Amino acid sequence: MSTSSPPDPRSGLPLRARLATTVGGAAGRASRLAGRGDGSVIGGIIGLRLQPDLLCLLARGRRIVLVTGTNGKTTTTRLITAALGTLGQQIASNAFGANMEAGLVAALARAPDATMAVLEVDEKHMPAMLQATGAQVVTLLNLSRDQMDRAAEIWLLARRWRAVLAAAPDCRVIANADDPLVAWAAGQARRVTWVAAGQRWHDDSWCCPNCGSHLRRDGDDWHCGECPNRRPPVSWVLAGDEVIDPTGRSRPLDLLLPGRANRSNAVIALAVAEVFGVGFTQAMNAIQQVRSVAGRYTHVERRGCDLRLLLAKNPAGWLEALDVLAPAPVPVMLAVNAQVPDGKDTSWLWDVDYRRLRGRQVFVAGERKLDLAVRLEADEVAFRIVGSVDEAVDLARSPSMDVLANYTAFQQIRAVLGRTA
Ligand SMILES: [Zn+2]
After folding, report:
1. Where are the domains of the chain?
2. Cα of 140 to ligand 1 centre, how many Å?
3. How far is Cα 231 from Cα 155, in angstroms, rounded to an integer?
4. Distance 228 CA to ligand 1 centre (A)
5. Under CATH, what is the fold of the domain 53-288?
6. CATH architecture under which domain 299-417 falls
7. Low-confidence ranges of the chain (pLDDT < 70)
8. In angstroms, what is the span from residue 207 Cα to ligand 1's centroid?
9. What is the pTM of this model?
10. Cα 336 to middle of ligand 1, angstroms
11. Ligand 1 centroid vs 210 CA: distance in angstroms?
């Protein structure tokens, strides 16, 4: 990768594109002032109407990292941004998770002087966004069902990733070797850094993506019994609470963010940082200081109770979130909605094992609290249904409580508590 500084990204923009970013930026500010979110998406949409290839124009001359996968995108984007921030350059990023084309446009337009960008990308849009931005680095975290996506859609997606990465020989791929679908998707890329980042959710990857036979697993290792497809040799390894770097040196991962999933995200971020010449200690110092990501893991004081907010969007995310719950007897509130961004169907609730919640105070809320209640009944978890966070706080009479919610339920709770991070 060239280390010479790229030209000022703004100076190359055609007049119409400059106009598009100006108008889009004004619309975004208006939307923010009107209290309709952070305004980034509306600004991007308007910019793209005026200049359909705006993303391509805005990306020109910048060094770009794309981050995609089913879970962990927002957090990993934040950690990579922290690590690369130690280089002292301004970095553009869609830090609040607006991860489709308009969100990327808004992030780049907002930071015209940034010579680098770390961008979270929706997994379905990654191929088009890679082609539009010409990103130098693509980070593949994992690939599993989101809500009620069918397995066939995941496989189709992996095939699209594989094709676009094979056609981008200059792109460096950082990929999770423990996820067989990800490994296959990156399998024809020219330059791959393989990371043993772990895979908690195995249900979507029992079949070999290459030939359809049964995959065999032996601890972390996996291979196909029928074809040569196997786990690639890894450079970076997450081993319990430690990270092993490409030289074989093992060091502790002391993070403020909780849980195995975040340790996995951190190891991926360290591998990306290395590509840009950021040393381990320098990157690690920045990564371990990140304490909340777009309001997730945030602590909020509410009526004398220290609430910790956890977001989980799909079965794999709920498993990871249940892993990081504070130990009993700390009470927990679960909130589930089924609006369009959540998926209308709540049958995924049955894919998660809730038995570990037995023996502690559990509160159930959200628009689909009855679906959740039925599910908890089946797992013999005692619970109380509540109408709000405040009701749960009042009933719990506890100095602290974990609040775990899916996407729109999380947004509603944050709106009640105020945007605190
Ligand atoms: Zn096979």
Report:
1. 13-51, 53-288, 299-417
2. 21
3. 18
4. 6
5. UDP-N-acetylmuramoyl-L-alanine:D-glutamate ligase (3.40.1190)
6. Alpha-Beta Complex (3.90)
7. 1-12, 26-40, 146-151, 201-205, 419-421
8. 8
9. 0.82
10. 38
11. 5
